[in-house]
Structures are given as C-alpha cells and as structure tokens.
Amino acid sequence: MPISPSTSPSGVPFEICGNPGEVAAAAAEFFATMAVEAIARRGSFAVALSGGSTPRLMHDHLTREPLASRIGWSRAELFFGDERAVGPDHADSNYRMARETLFDRVAIPPSQIHRMIGEAADLAASARDYASILQSQLPLCATGFPTFDLILLGMGPDGHTASLFPGTEALDETRLWVVANDVPQLQTRRLTLTFPVLNAAKNVLFLVTGQAKAAPVAEIFSTERGRAHHPAGRVRPTEGRLLWLLDREAAAGLPEVSL
Ligand code: 6PG
C-alpha cells in the first residue's frame, strides 16, 4: 500500500488511517517493505519493537499471509525499544506481548530475538549488557550510534515514547545507548533506548491510535515548541525516515482533518 504522507506545520510526516485496524495494516505493510529492503541491501533486518497494546494488531497482520511469507524471518534480528522492570512471563512484559502475538507464530530463530532483561536486580547493568548486544549486532552510524533498519514506537497520553517519559533523566542522555530510567510518575524503573539511538535509525514508524492521544498529537503537530515539549516529538531521525500513522481519533485535534 503506497503511503504518501502529509507533513504537519511542525514538520512531522504523517498518514491518517480510518481506524486502529487500518493503522495496523498500514504499519505491517511498512514493516514488510522495510524488511525486504534491508535484507536485499545488507542481508539482515534489525527492528526494535514497541511495547504497549497498539502493536498487537500489527503483529497479527505480520503472522498472516501475504506478509508472513514476504518477510525473511530467518534474516531478521528482533530487539525492543524498551522494557518494564519485570520478567518475561509478567503480564506487563513487552517481551511477553511480542512472544504471544508474534514470536510464537512465525519462524524466527530464538537466538535472533534479543530480550531486554527487565527482571535484573541491577537494571543499569542490564542496560549496559543490552548496549553490548547492539554493539555486536548493528552497524554504527557516522556519529557512532547503532543503526536500526526500523524502530517501531508508540506514544502515551502524556507524550512519552519508548520509556522516555516527561521529566525523566533519560531525556537528557546524549552518550549512552540504553539506560535504566527512573519513572517517578509510575513509581517504577524502565529500560529504554535513548534519543541518540532512536534518531540514528534508518526508519522510525509511530503507531498512535485513540482519543487519549489527540491532545499531544495536536501539540506535537502544530508548532516547533509543541513538538519539542513532548518526548515523542523529539524523535527526529538525523538521516532516516520518520512516519506517524494515526487513526481518526488520535488525529481529531488536527485542523482540517480530512480522511
Ligand atoms: C511501553 C511502550 C510505550 C507505549 C505507549 C503507548 O512500554 O509501554 O513502549 O511507549 O508505546 O505507552 O502504549 P499503547 O500502545 O498501549 O497506547
């Protein structure tokens, strides 16, 4: 499905799909296209999956024909953009959601699924270990950051993305690739990729649906100030492509929204 994005006044490329199912279908098609391109270009496809609930529908599309056999799963390396401080079987685990909706339904070699160890007692050490995996698996960009072929992201109603939450220390990280981030508003810690890694990606795709996201979307899309105010707005790939896929509800605050 060719995607011809619009661009918001603040410079955000976006496409509005009617409903969450259409967002998921468009995202799955984009995922498959990026996979085919990366494998043709360099023999491998490195993708960081998003947590939360929105990606579930997209994962389902990836496990069904025609996309399932279009994607060379044996050449895919699966990573995570963030993880909660829980084990792989916990209900809140991003890994568990991906395992149930994707990994258990396509033929990805287990050694090519790279889980963030959220249950580690020393979360900072777990972040360092994950950065070592990125070092060993990914090419580096000109400024020395690991380059994903595709990073999938969502956005919370507070404008967070991955586990880069408003007012948290990780927002200011410019050197480390993965950090353990204290999130006082959730009274928890999270593992997350940092902005330098997100912005080094060749492609970043946001999946944002639901009325609860309409306000931050409108602010991020309207002005440079509004964009910079929200963590999700600060994802601006240096050389890569950025695309936001929105459903009608998440786009409701945009002027002259026409579908
Ligand atoms: C997480 C995600 C987070 C998510 C947003 C949106 O670990 O929760 O990485 O950034 O993408 O919170 O979540 P929903 O898709 O559930 O709205």
Q: How big a fraction of the residues is strand?
A: 15-25%
Largest sheet, order of strands side by side? 1-2-10-9-6-3-4
- The stretches of 5 or more residues where confidence is low (pLDDT under 50) are none
Spatial extent as radius of gyration: 17 Å
What is the averaged pLDDT score? 96
Order of helices and strands: EEHEHHEEHHEEEHEHHE
Helix content range of the residues, please? Answer: 25-40%
Q: How many strands, what sense, and barrel or not for the largest sheet?
A: 7 strands, mixed
Write down the overall geometry.
globular
- Ends: how far apart? 16 Å
Instruction: Name the bound molecules.
Output: 6-phosphogluconic acid
Pairing-aware structural class of the strands and helices? alpha/beta
Multimerization status = single chain
Description:
The strands form 2 sheets. Strands 1-2-10-9-6-3-4 form a 7-stranded mixed beta sheet, with helices on one face. The protein has a 3-stranded antiparallel beta sheet with strand order 5-8-7. It has helices at about 20-40, 55-60, 65-70, 95-100, 125-135, 195-200, 215-220, 225-230, and strands at about 5, 15, 45-50, 75-80, 80-85, 150-155, 180-185, 190-195, 205-210, 240-245. By secondary structure, the chain is α/β, with parallel strands linked by helices. Helix 1 (about 20-40) crosses helix 2. It is globular and about 45 Å long. It binds 6-phosphogluconic acid. The site of 6-phosphogluconic acid has 15 residues, from loops. 6-phosphogluconic acid binds near residues 52, 54, 155, 162 and 163.
